[in-house]
Write a structure and sequence with these properties.
36% of the residues lie in helices and 20% in strands. It is α/β, with parallel strands linked by helices and 307 residues long. The longest helix has 19 residues. Helix 2 packs antiparallel against helix 9 and helix 5 crosses helix 10.
């Protein structure tokens, strides 16, 4: 059975944040749904003599959705490496960046914004999703709201995902700055949900007026939940940047790095790997294309003082 968070718990947290923030509080507040497991072995340790291969996943999805989506891929990696794999989950993109900088992880699936803002990591691979190598930020609102742009959401409530998220924070902030609007005072109240699926859900359930979300996650979630289609709509889109990349810490063993990269780049060629990719809505992994992340640099420079 698919494991999901109770939305009752989710709603209580969001409502409490709304009550505490008040209509006059413009600053974004964090919303914590549940502390993710800090260290979660996928299987019982093997007697190979190898230390675990540590993989971190940024909180693009809520913790249980992350485990459900990535577990087949990581088990595939474990089998091909013949080495135990440990999943590391953290609450924020910054915490994953810190792991990479301190070499506390061997491989990480990060957000494009987190990669641009981070240090001590190198591009390793990138997913191709439904034939595309880029994605956008979608500004979404509940269907009953007549507003047609991010600018016209002035005085409304708004959900961001993570401070270092391109689609869930950096993009809308930079879009407001470009229109000479203040990201700090534009909304009546705002908060961070720390996952795109929860941001979408908060709009669908009417707990917030609008949100900024990852276009790939939005398309995936609405395909899974067609009943939500009439409850939310897109009012604006950002420029496109490279899909959230796979990265490794600088200084990772060259032979290990090559072996893992070969596994990822070829996994679409067999049925087990193809199924693991399907669970993430990925077509395949390809070699990274650094030029696709270049448009993020001026955006990061424009908003970094607000984060």
């Amino acid at each position: 059975m698919k494991r999901r968070f109770s939305f009752g718990l989710f709603a209580v947290f969001l409502l409490l944040v709304g009550l505490l923030a008040g209509c006059s509080a413009p600053a974004a507040k964090p919303v914590r749904l549940q502390d993710p497991e800090a260290r979660m072995p996928l299987t019982a340790p093997k007697s190979t003599g190898f230390t675990p291969f540590r993989v971190a996943v940024s909180s693009i999805l809520s913790p249980m959705e992350t485990l459900d989506g990535y577990e087949p891929l990581l088990k595939y990696l474990e089998a091909r490496l013949d080495r135990p794999v440990v999943l590391l989950q953290r609450r924020t993109y910054q915490e994953v960046n810190q792991l990479l900088q301190e070499r506390g992880v061997d491989l990480a699936f990060v957000c494009s914004g987190g990669y641009t803002a981070g240090q001590g990591m190198e591009l390793f691979a990138m997913p191709e999703v439904r034939g595309r190598r880029t994605y956008q930020s979608y500004i979404i609102v509940r269907s009953g709201l007549t507003t047609g742009s991010l600018a016209s959401l002035a005085g409304h409530s708004f959900a961001f995902t993570d401070p270092l998220s391109f689609s869930g924070h950096m993009a809308p902030q930079s879009m407001l700055i470009a229109q000479k609007l203040s990201p700090q005072t534009h909304f009546s109240r705002s908060f961070f949900t720390f996952s795109h699926d929860n941001s979408i859900r908060s709009v669908v359930e009417g707990l917030v007026d609008g949100a900024a979300v990852d276009s790939m996650i939005y398309d995936r979630i609405l395909a899974q939940r067609p009943e939500w289609t009439g409850k939310v709509r897109i009012i604006e889109k950002s420029l496109s940047v490279g899909n959230p990349p796979v990265v490794v810490p600088q200084g990772l063993d060259v032979a290990l790095k090559q072996k893992v990269q070969d596994i990822l780049l070829k996994m679409h060629e067999d049925s087990i790997g193809k199924e693991a990719l399907r669970r993430l809505d990925y077509d395949r992994f390809i070699l990274p294309q650094p030029e696709l992340y270049e448009p993020l640099k001026p955006i990061w420079q424009a908003v970094r003082g607000l984060i």
